[in-house]
Every structure is written in C-alpha cells, then in structure tokens.
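Changelog note: in this version the structure field was regenerated for every chain. One regenerated record is shown below for reference.
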Amino acid sequence: MGHDKQNRYERPGWDDYFLSIARIVRQRSTCLRRHVGAVIVKDQRILATGYNGAPRQMRHCSEVGCLREERDIPSGERHELCRGIHAEQNAIVQAAAFGVSISGSTLYCTHFPCILCTKLLINAGIKRLVVEEAYPDELSREMLEEAGIEVCIRDSREFEKI
C-alpha cells in the first residue's frame, strides 16, 4: 500500500527543487519594489542563500522608504542609488563570510541578474545560472554568454537555455 502512494508522487527535478527554495528565500526580502531570492548550489548541496534588502545593522526600506521610488528611478537603472544589496550579492557575501568556495557552482535565482551581479557571478566562478524571471539587461546576457556560463530561464513549465 505505501509503495503505491510513493509511485503516484512525482518528485521535483533538481532545478524545480532549488528554484522553489529561492522563492522561499525571497520572502525575507525587505525591498519595497521587488522581492528576489538566490540559492547557490554545488553537487545538489546548498552552499549559501541571499535575498535583497538593506545591509546588516541598517534600517530596512520598509522603515525609511525607497530612495528609488522617491526619485522615480526606473527599474534596471542607477543601481548605486539604492540602500539594498541584491540577492545574488548577499549569497556571494554569505559564502565568503563563512569561507565557502562557490567556484563551479550553480546559482538559482527568482530573477535574472543585473549587470553588477553578473560581473560578480562571473568572477566568483559560477558555472550555471537558473532563473525564473527574465530581466531586460542585454549586457548581462552578453557577458554571461562570453564567460561561458550556462543560463536557463524558466518558462511556465520548461527551461529555455540561452
């Protein structure tokens, strides 16, 4: 009887599994504009996670407001005018803080990385990127391709490789 129940249950594939964890991680985000979660994985083991929000020991945007909203800055522009650190950056910093090498790993993220995060991911040695939502940053796409990083963008049910 227990065996039949097990056969009816479909386990998620690794990409679905780790993207679902990234969706949970993003629930900790304190950004007022977009909640993003990231998970760095190697050999099916989670090495680090990150979400977007203000740096440690700093007041969250939910407390002080959003500088980008106040200045009417469009998404994808003027990243330096923000109190927050991106999810990908937080995951990289978390790994570094605990002495965990992420070279050769996969980053699962709810959103496509901006150009600033892309450069960090390249230099950190990330080899594969799996994202749920595209982001209009052509330079990021070009640099990821040139760096030889495999990129999979999740469609509603399948993954598209770019």
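Spot check on this record: The longest strand covers residues 45-51. The two ends are 44 Å apart (CA to CA).
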